[in-house]
Design a protein that fits this description.
The protein is of the alpha+beta class. It contains 24 helices and 22 strands. The radius of gyration is 28 Å and the shape is globular. It binds 2-(butylsulfanyl)adenosine (IVH).
Length: 669
């Protein structure tokens, strides 16, 4: 393509993709399939690679991240980022409304909003283009996290409509709960400790150096304030207008924002969200009440720290008192140490709580815990309840202080904590019993070697009988050894030995996942297997070679290099190889990457193929099978007897529906 043609094509694609992004992320509508979208995006990526001089610095390709920021620059806020005065008391809200109503002669209008529990951000737009995004920091200066913020799909890179030429918009970046849960599930899969709560994780994510990881995590943002431009006379109207420029702003239709002139209206909004907040797909920690009219806001002015024209009402987190009975330190399969508090059982939010996570040594230090202490336990958005404080007036005399262990309780080796990490690790991965058992359990799991007839209890028994110390030992087990184990009947022993034998047919990528290399989850294992083809190539790959592979970052690369450097791991792999496990990818006939990036839902009854065969075909050609229809689904393959509700959902979401024949044509088979 000639440069001038490329320039025009890049502009055209940029515009088209920006339009579809807005439609999808802000208006929740879809005109083209994910597959078509990805095709356009890939085209743009390729053209930008060839003709970087024409790439817009806010190209939709920035959404996938890629910039590595070693250190975030400090930026002074043009308008200081103040905080809100807040209260937990409804009475104080009433007093505030009455007080400021008296200060102003005219009738006041209030805007009630949600208080999003995330991280504040200020984003500057010049000529409709996202120029810079800065965190709150200390309120007068924050960190420049622009490259990370550009990956957040609901924040427009290019505005539309009649926007002001130079202004700042502020809002809150947060972790949607569904994405947060998904992230934690993936961490469990990797043997990593779960993240404690969405807010801190959003904050940590925003400060990550690799914007590619940020892009994958799926942060979101609501915008709530404009600085440096007068788009309307009041706050409420301005927020609505900003919606027209492409921002995700709260809407009155679902009561995310509401205008009222009365105390009753304010109190009703508070009561509604105190009741309904658990149904929201993100966390809020209260509501914010603001005076609407900008002139009146100016009249009311500011105190040193916060505006007089706004106040936050914070919801009380449900909190109970109970006794801290003991603290245990759990060792995960990767050696991560998690302190867990055993509590005197207590009812909280409808469930009985017996345990609370203490996360790490810093947390224990901060709480200054003693055994037998009366502790306050809260259930926020977190999965596991947490101890938020100690009622020291009840402290028992001569109580024993809770001290984080310095040596592993299971194997006594000294614990290690890397600079900048909150977690302690036991590095004795090859000899520490819970790590050994955890690794074996991971190896035999459904997504790895999927060994029939073997579960956690049997692993314990095999370990106790000194029959296994690592996953290679499984392949030396004989029927006679196994049958001697307590409660192991002939049939179960047979099943186990046969299950182990059959696992030798499991493909390389799953064996690789099963090895439990830190940070090598299912997807990464697939990627590595596909790219490097066999274990020898992986073992020889240098750090630099590894990070050149798409989706492999420094953390993963480093962990792989460390794993293969260890002679014990080399020996383990040699033994597994001799046992006959697959350490090389088998490029089977009929495989292609024709459906790369596309996701499918297969539903109904078919003629030429069974449903499983269709699903296999999808995977063989690089596509992904997903269980249920969502706006992210690219295609639905509809057979006879597909449920009408499914069909309607697909049609409503504008997802392309294929017949069996369409699909066959698509694959050219
Ligand atoms: S307005 C001058 N509105 O709460 C104050 N803040 O302590 C401007 N927040 O740092 C803030 N939801 O991060 C405002 N609807 C909302 C908010 C909100 C959450 C956060 C924001 C701010 C903190 C105030």
């Amino acid at each position: 393509m000639k440069p001038n043609e490329a320039k025009i094509e890049i502009e055209r694609l940029t515009k088209e993709l920006t339009y579809h992004n807005h439609l999808y992320y802000i208006e929740s509508k879809q005109e083209i399939s994910d597959f078509d979208f990805d095709t356009l995006l890939k085209k743009l990526q390729e053209l930008e690679k060839q003709f970087p001089q024409y790439a817009s610095k806010n190209s939709p390709t920035k959404r996938v991240g890629g910039d590595i920021t070693k250190k975030f620059d400090s930026v002074v806020h043009k308008y200081p980022m103040l905080s809100l005065s807040n209260t937990y008391s409804e009475e104080e809200i009433r007093d505030w409304v009455l007080r400021i109503s008296k200060l102003s002669e005219a009738q006041l209008e209030f805007v009630c909003e949600l208080k999003y529990d995330g991280v504040a951000i200020g984003i500057q737009y010049i000529d409709g283009v996202l120029e810079q995004a800065v965190t709150r920091g200390d309120g007068s200066q924050g960190e420049n996290v622009t490259s990370n913020v550009k990956t957040i799909k609901t924040i427009p890179l290019q505005l539309k409509g009649d926007f002001p030429l130079d202004f700042e918009i502020r809002g809150e970046i947060f972790f949607p709960l569904a994405n947060f849960d998904q992230l934690n599930k993936a961490r469990i899969d990797l043997g990593e400790p779960e993240f404690a709560n969405p807010r801190n994780t959003a904050s940590g994510t925003l400060k990550m150096q690799d914007s590619k990881i940020v892009a994958k995590r799926g942060l979101d943002c609501f915008l709530y304030g404009i600085y440096g431009a007068d788009a309307a006379v009041g706050h409420y109207e301005t927020v609505q207008v900003a919606g027209n420029w492409g921002f995700k702003t709260p809407k009155a239709s679902n009561r995310y924002i509401e205008k009222t002139s009365s105390i009753e209206g304010v109190m009703d909004f508070i009561a509604y969200w105190d009741r309904e907040r658990s149904k929201l797909p993100f966390e809020i920690d209260g509501v914010v009440i603001k005076v609407n009219d900008y002139d009146q806001q100016e009249e009311l002015g500011f105190t040193a720290k916060s505006p007089r024209w706004a106040i936050a009402y914070k919801f009380k987190a449900e909190r109970v008192e109970t006794i801290l009975e003991s603290v245990v330190f759990q060792v995960g399969r990767t050696g991560a140490i998690t302190p867990v508090a055993n509590l005197k059982p207590v009812t909280l939010g409808g469930t009985t709580v017996k345990r609370a996570s203490l996360h790490n040594s810093d947390q224990i230090e901060k709480l200054d815990l003693y055994l037998g202490d009366t502790v306050y336990v809260e259930k926020g958005g977190e999965i596991i309840p947490k101890i938020v404080g100690v009622n020291t007036s009840n402290r028992i005399e001569n109580a024993e202080k809770v001290i984080f262990i310095s040596n592993c309780l299971e194997c006594n080796s000294q614990l290690d904590r890397e600079d900048g990490e909150a977690q302690h690790y036991c590095l004795n991965s090859l000899n520490c019993p819970p790590q050994i058992k955890g690794k074996i359990e991971h190896f035999i799991g459904r997504k790895a070697l999927n060994i029939d007839g073997l579960g956690a209890e049997t692993v314990d028994a095999l370990f106790d009988a000194s029959l296994v110390r690592n996953v290679a030992d499984l392949y030396d087990l004989t029927f006679h050894q196994v049958v001697k184990i307590d409660r192991m009947a002939d049939k179960s022993a047979n099943n186990l030995v046969q299950g182990i034998r059959e696992s030798k047919e499991i493909p390389f990528e799953r064996v690789l996942f099963g090895l439990g290399i830190r940070f090598v989850g299912e997807t990464v294992a697939k990627k590595l297997a596909k790219t490097l083809k066999n274990i020898d190539a992986l073992c020889k790959a240098t750090f630099d070679e590894l990070i050149r592979i798409d989706e492999i970052g420094e953390r993963i690369a480093n962990s792989i290099v460390v794993f293969f450097k260890n002679p014990a791991n080399q020996e383990l792999i040699d033994r597994l190889k001799s046992a006959g496990l697959k350490f090389e990818i088998i490029e089977e006939e009929g495989h292609s990457d024709r459906l790369n990036g596309a996701s499918f839902v297969v539903s109904g009854v078919f003629k030429a193929f069974s449903r499983t065969e269709l699903k296999d075909l999808i995977e063989m050609n690089g596509g992904k099978n997903v269980g249920s229809i969502s706006k992210k689904t690219s295609y639905v393959i509809a057979g006879d007897k597909m449920g009408p509700s499914k069909l309607k959902k697909a049609t409503d979401l504008g997802i392309r529906i294929l017949t069996e024949d369409d699909f066959i044509k698509m694959l050219d088979i």
